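Entry 0007
Protein: HTH-type transcriptional regulator EthR
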Amino acid sequence: MTGRPYGGRDPQQRQRERRDRLLAAALELYGTAGYNPTTIADVCRTAGVAPAHFYELFGSREELLRVLYDEIVTTTFDAVLAAVADQSVDPAVRVRAGLTAYCDHLLTDPRRARVQCIEVVGVSAEMEAHRRAVIRQYAEFLAAELNAINDRRPNPAEPDPASDALLATAVVGGVNEAMIDWLLLDERPPVSALLSGLTLMLTAVADARLNP
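Output (structure tokens):
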């Protein structure tokens, strides 16, 4: 049985709406008060969803966090990919465009940045493994972009995949740590100031790697 329509909406549509409201509530609460002090009851109350309906959609508070985190990561990565899609543009320009898209997408709504960079850290062994996999995904993307820059050079540097992977991971970690510091400041400087510093770091790393 699929259930009867109610208020002009079928059960599947109502369930999708509840899911969207729960994720919006989680973004608000996890992105402001934080994950640890926020209970399922808090999320349900903010979303206007009964606890019984919560458990139809999510098995636990941590599962809700993971789904929210994955949505933030996916939309952020999509923004980065769109920014670097033009393969005719100089790779160095594309890398800067990708970094700009990354910062803009997360920091125009700092709740997204807080969830991605702070609230998922140390939640559980499973969540930590998931978070590390996302970091590797970003690092692999960055390493590929640096290799594209290298390939266009008249005298490309010798490839070193293992070192490049570690270097890219270090850069991704540096970007995240800078973003965390920005989020925790009582008086935040403009996003443009953060982006300028991160661009300098990325440019210096790329120059050192490609001009050994």
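Curator remark: Residues 60-210 form a domain with the Tetracycline Repressor; domain 2 fold (CATH 1.10.357.10). The CA atoms of residues 28 and 43 lie 9 Å apart.
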